[in-house]
Automatic annotation (TrEMBL):
Region called Disordered, residue ranges: 550-579
Keyword Repeat: no
Protein name as annotated: Heparinase II/III-like C-terminal domain-containing protein
Cellular compartments annotated: Periplasm
Length: 645
């Protein structure tokens, strides 16, 4: 990722003077990796094509269009940093630079987007003007609008300098309203697009009002009187419609959850959090709490459903969101996420610092103070079906709810395992959507540590929570002609034991089939067959040891369950990174049971090549016995398949 050091003066001649395309096309067609951000921000893509991490040079028209998207967005963020800093420091030089870039962008916008919607956008897209997508237009214009807002508000006597930017602000607000109206007419009000369209409308309208008012000062507009916020299809209505009672964005995608929350908080600039209606205010707090509860102690955010596994540009968004959340609610709980994101972002653009020191703060009132209970061992959002279990240094995430629409993956009953800061078995995330082959892979059941039947992808499905208590939960998915695998069902039970995590999976089918449970690590993995059990050692900064047992039956009696280790692609940041995949498979089975006990090793991690016996495991027809290192034996009942209602 490339950024401009804040002390370096930049020229408006560096602005791109072409429309942007779709950023998801910024992917190597051969390797499936995102391409290098070389030359960004700048006027034109590299002449010889854009590099991929594996040495390719790609200069196709879609890649050029994607590069232009990223460059336009980087310029908008750069202008925003300059404007916020000028407002804070009173620097004439930085104000002049920001104004010059904004006025130049007004010329670019009139030149390249004045003809209306982008004629080269794909048919399925909600068309933009400067970019293929209206969503991309909205994201870009939110940065432009906030830059104008800061400059006009901090120096109202010079607001006339910004009048050439008014056509852009007016046009983007108008386009945002038109795009939102199309979504509403199509019955897609809850789309994550709506949050950004509302943000663009509110920010650009307010910025334009400040410019027009000049020294007179634009009158404050209450939340209740602001259509973009409190209208029938405004942000507050969207926040209630597009999230669960517990605060998850309905698609249950970590990326889109943060994406929508950031749009909400960006649009609420200048408001007092305490002035928001209680329902909407509480929902936004819950959205921040979702991320804090999902993150590991060292700030890893599992990449549930669509979203990058690792991406420096996304890391910058997490740092921005952390600042905004801190301004909205005291102790938002995202400090570890922000610290980790800073390490991942590398050469950042200092937007986070400017937001923290913005004169008067982002919001017009202090952060909300909320009493929060102690974090439970087991937490579940039953509407989206995401559970988090914390057990003796293991951070387990179990996905069992609705598919998640277009951003969903075939990961029903997938179990993801993390330490404080080690991704032992993470959600693999997703590549840029412009690579259909690798996108299909990372949506598939094969990419996830879940149950597979006959090795095909299931139909979309919704699991359900069967039971839970303070230290355990059991979830289930059933298949029929239109859901999951027809004639099959499975349940998964997690128990936070004393010093370990117990994982029990039971799958059954109405006829002999191939039943498989997968392990998908992102660390070196050692696997050893030891009599009737398999032992695994998971490397990384923290070490995880596992002991596993399985049995299966078919029409003629017992069926062997074999653990096969084979090379496979790692998570989606680089599909070429090879990892050991393990599949426990029973051929011709009508019922299979897999039992695993995971325990954090007290050592220093390592290669994962030498599994050790931290606990002993014995499974018979009715119970599971776990012998701990201290010799104590814990007995757990073996769950039966759920009976029909």
């Amino acid at each position: 990722m490339t950024s401009l050091a804040p002390e370096h003066t930049v020229s408006a001649s560096g602005l791109p003077r072409e429309r942007g395309g779709w950023w998801h096309d910024f992917v190597c067609p051969t390797h499936g990796t995102e391409l290098s951000h070389e030359g960004i921000p700048g006027p034109v893509p590299p002449a010889g094509g854009v590099r991929c991490p594996h040495g390719c040079r790609v200069g196709s028209e879609p890649v050029r269009g994607a590069w232009l998207v990223l460059s336009h967005q980087a310029w908008a963020r750069r202008i925003r940093v300059l404007a916020h800093r000028a407002a804070r420091t009173g620097s004439d030089a930085e104000r002049s630079e920001a104004v010059a870039l904004l006025v130049a962008y007004a010329d670019v916008y009139a030149e390249v987007a004045g003809g209306g919607e982008h004629e080269r956008a794909q048919d399925w897209m909600l068309r933009g003007r400067l970019f293929h997508q209206a969503l991309t237009d909205a994201i870009w214009s939110v940065s432009i609008g906030h830059a104008v807002w800061s400059l006009a508000e901090s120096s109202p006597e010079r607001a006339a300098d910004l009048r050439p930017v008014l056509p852009v602000l007016d046009a983007t607000a108008e386009a945002a309203r038109a795009a939102r109206d199309r979504l509403v007419a199509d019955g897609r009000f809850t789309s994550n697009y709506t949050a950004w369209l509302n943000a663009a409308g509110r920010v650009c309208a307010r910025a334009a009002a400040l410019v027009r008012a000049g020294t007179a000062g634009a009158p404050a507009v209450s939340v209740a009187d602001d259509e973009w916020l409190a209208g029938e299809h405004g942000q507050l209505a969207h926040a209630l419609a597009a999230t669960t009672r517990d605060g998850w964005e309905w698609e249950a995608s970590t990326y889109y959850h943060g994406f929508v929350l950031r749009a909400y908080l960006l649009s609420l600039r200048g408001t007092d959090p305490a002035d928001l209606p209680a329902g909407s205010r509480d929902r936004l707090v819950a959205m921040a709490d979702v991320l804090a509860g999902l993150a590991t102690d060292d700030g890893i955010l599992p990449a549930i459903h669509d979203g990058p596994y690792l991406r420096p540009a996304l890391a910058l968004e997490w740092t921005e969101l952390s600042v905004l959340a801190d301004g909205f609610v005291a102790d938002a709980g995202l400090d570890a996420v922000a610290a980790r994101a800073r390490r991942e972002a590398g050469d950042g653009d200092l937007l986070e610092d400017e937001l923290r020191t913005l004169p008067g703060g982002w919001f017009a009132g202090p952060p909300l103070v909320v009493d929060r209970p102690a974090r439970p061992v087991v937490s579940v959002d039953e509407e989206v079906g995401i559970a988090v279990v914390r057990a003796a240094g293991i951070h387990a995430v179990l996905d069992h709810g609705p598919h998640g629409a277009g951003h969903g993956h075939h990961d029903k009953l997938a179990l993801h395992l993390y330490g404080r800061g080690t991704p032992w078995q993470p959600d693999p995330g997703q590549v840029p959507y412009g690579h259909p082959g690798w996108r299909d892979h990372y949506m598939s059941a094969t990419a996830h540590p879940c149950v597979r039947v006959d090795d095909g992808d299931p139909a979309e499905a919704t699991g359900r929570l069967l039971d839970r208590d303070e230290r355990s939960l059991t979830v289930e998915v059933r298949g029929d002609a239109t859901s999951w695998y027809d004639g099959a069902r499975a349940l998964r039970r997690l128990v936070a034991g004393d010093g370990y995590l117990l994982d029990v999976v039971v799958a059954s089918a109405d006829r002999p089939r191939r039943l498989t449970l997968g392990l998908r690590p992102d660390v070196p993995l050692g696997v050893r067959l030891d009599g009737d059990v398999v032992r695994t050692a998971w490397g990384g900064a923290e070490r995880l040891d596992g002991v596993h047992a399985a049995h299966a039956t078919g029409p003629a009696g017992p069926v062997p369950v074999r653990a096969a280790v084979r090379p496979g692609p790692g998570p989606a940041d680089d599909p070429q990174r090879e990892r050991a995949h393990v599949d426990w498979t029973a051929h011709g089975a009508t019922r299979a049971v897999w039992v695993s006990v995971f325990r954090v090793d007290g050592g220093t991690g390592g290669s994962g090549s030498e599994p050790e016996a931290g606990v002993e495991l014995d499974v018979d027809a009715g119970e599971i016995r776990v012998r701990r290192a201290d010799g104590v034996v814990d007995v757990h009942p073996l769950p039966e398949e759920a009976t029909d209602d």
